Amino acid sequence: MKRVKEAGRRANRHIRMILRKVSIFRRLNLSFMLLIISAAIFLTFFSFYKYSDEISKNIDKYISLLVQNAAMKIEDTMQEYEEEALRFYDNSQVVRALLENAGSKTDTESGEYEQNRYCIENALYNMGYGRKYIVNVQFVTPEDQYYMVEPGGYRRGGIIRDPDAFYETEFYTLPQEKRGYPVWFDTAEQTSVFYKNEQNVYGLANIVTLGIAVYAPADREFLGVLLLNIDLNAFSGAMEGYEEYNDGNTFLIGEDGILMWFNPSISAPAFPRDGLLFQEMKGNGKGISQMNSDGQELLLAYEKIPNTDVFVAHVVDLAVLYAGTYQIRNLCIMVLLAVVIACTVISYYVTSSISEPIGQLIKVMQMTGDGKWNERFPNSGKDEITILGDRFNEMADKTDQLIEQVYLSEIRRQEVSISWTNARLDALLMQINPHFLYNTLDIIRWEAMYEANGESPVTQMIEKFSQLYRMGMRTGGNTITLKEGIEHAKTYLEVINFRHREKIQLEIHVEPEEEQLYVPQFMLQPIMENAVVHAFGDASRGYRITIRAYREEEKLFIRIKDNGKGMSGEELEKLSLTMERNAFAEENIGLVNVNQRIRLFYGEGYGIRITSRIGEGTEIIISLPVRNCSENMEKNRGGEQDGIQSMDR
User: Fold this and answer.
1) I want to staple 124 with a disulfide (CB 3.0 to 4.6 A). Which of 137, 195, 509, 567 is the partner?
2) What distances in angstroms separate CA 436 from CA 254, 429, 459, 488, one per listed residue?
3) CATH number of the domain at 91-235, please?
4) Which residues in the chain are classed under CATH 3.30.565.10?
5) Where is the HAMP domain positioned along the sequence (predicted)?
C-alpha cells in the first residue's frame, strides 16, 4: 500500500513538472479545449442517438395508433349498417309477410302474395332511402329474391341476375353457417353477382357486401338472406383528423387486394406486392414491421377489423420518415463545429486574460526594479492578478510617497499655495466686473438726469435696464421664486416697450401660494424675448402676452401665450424636434436653452411643450416639479464656500 501511494506521489510530481515546462497560455488553452470539446462531442452524439431512438419508438406508437383508430372507425361504421339490417328483420310486419309468402309457394299470383311482397320490398327501399352509401338492398329466399321498390312501384338498387348460381356462392351459404351473425364480403366475385339492372354488362364495383341470415322468431325456420351492397366511400371518414399526415399511405386491404385508398399521396409508397403478405397479416391479426420493397425500406402497420377479413394498413417510407432525424443529426454536427469554434475563441480570450496581465505585471516589476517608480500596473479587472497588481501599486505608491516627502514636499506645497491664490483672485474678479458695470450704468443715469434737469425717457430706460441687469447678477442659487421670475419678465417687457408707442400688454394670473414656489433663473425672460422677436416682429399694437401659473398635485405648470402671428405646422415640427433632440438651434436659442436647463436640472419628465397655429398665436407650456425652497440655498448657506466669500451686496 505504501508503494502504491509513493508511486502516485511520484507520478503527480512528474506530471506537474511536465506541465510547468509549458507556458500558462498554452497550458490553459489546451486543457480548456480538451475538456470542452470532449464534453461537447459526447453530449452531441449521445443526445442524437437518444433522440433518434425516442423518435423511432414514438413513430411506431403513432402509426400503430393511427391504424387502430382507423380500424375502430370502420368497425363503428359497419356496426351502423348491421343495426340498420337488424331493424329490418325486427319488423314484425315484414317477418309475417315473409312467413306468409314462404307458405304460399304455389300461389304467387294471389293479391295477398303481391301485397306481402310490396311490404317487404318497400321495407328494403326504406333501409336505403336517405343513405347515399347503400347501393343495393336485397332479400333472397330459397324460392325468390326481393328488391328495393319505392312507394310508386319503381324498382331501385340492383338485382342478382343468376339466382341459381347465387345459391351456390358464399354470399348465400356463409350467412346460414353463421346462424344469423353478420358476414362481410370484400371479394372480387361481387362484380359477377350483383348488377345495377339486367342489361348492365358490368356488375357493381367498389362495394362491400353485408350478408345476414334471417330466421323466424318462433321456430327458427330459415327465411332467407338479407344482403346490403355498401359503397366503400362509406368508410372514407376513417382517416378524419389525419389528412395532413401525407408521409405515408393508408389502405383498406381485402383478400383480393386493395379495396380503398385513404387520402392518397403519390409521393408516398404503395402497398407492397407480396402474395404471402396478406396471409401473414391474416395470421397475426395486427402488427408493425419493416420490409424492403422495390429498393425502399418500408414501415408497415396493420390491424384487422373484427368479424371480417378486412385490414387497415399504413405504409410509409422510412427514409422520408427519418428525414427530419437526419436533418437534426446534420444540425447537431454543425452545432458541434460551432461549439468547437466558440470554445476555441473563448479559450483563447480566457487564457489571454490570465497570461497577459501576468506579463504586464512582470514588465512593471522589471521597470520599477530599474528605478522607474512612476510605473504602475493598470487596474483592468477584479481577479486575483488585479489584486496582486493593486498590492504592488500600493507598495510603489508608499515608496514614491516616502521619496516625495524627503525631496519634494516643500516645493509641492509652495506650488499649491500659488495656484490657490490665483484661483481666489480669478473668482473675486468674476464678481467685481458685473458690479462695476452696474455702478457705471448708475453714474450714466445720474449724468443724464443732470443734463435733462430731472427724469426723462432715457433715464427711465437706463434705470429699468440697470434693474434688469441687477436681477441677472443674483448669486447663491440656481432657482428663484416664481414671483421674482415674473418681476424679471415685467422689467424686461418695460425695457422693450420703450421703443413702442403702443405698448405690448402683459396679463398675469398667478395665485399667491404659487408665487412662493421656486423656478429656474432666467426662465421667463428668454420666452418673452422669443415672443417679442418672432411672434410680434417690429409691431406692438394690439399684441398681448398672458402668463398663467397653476399647480396640479406635485407639478407646477406655467403657460405663456401670445396673440402673435403663430407658426406653421412645419415650423412647429422643426422646433419641437430640435428641442426634443437638444440639438443646436440657429433660431429660438433662448427657448432651446431653457428647455435643456429644465431637463438637466429636473429630468426628462419636465420641460417645454409648444402649441401654435398661423394667425392664432403661440402657447408655451412649462412643466416643473413643485419646489418650496431654492435647490442650492441649503448648500451655500454659511456665506462662504471653498474659502471664497460671496459678494452679492
Assistant:
1) 137
2) 118, 10, 19, 21
3) 3.30.450.20
4) 478-631
5) 352-404
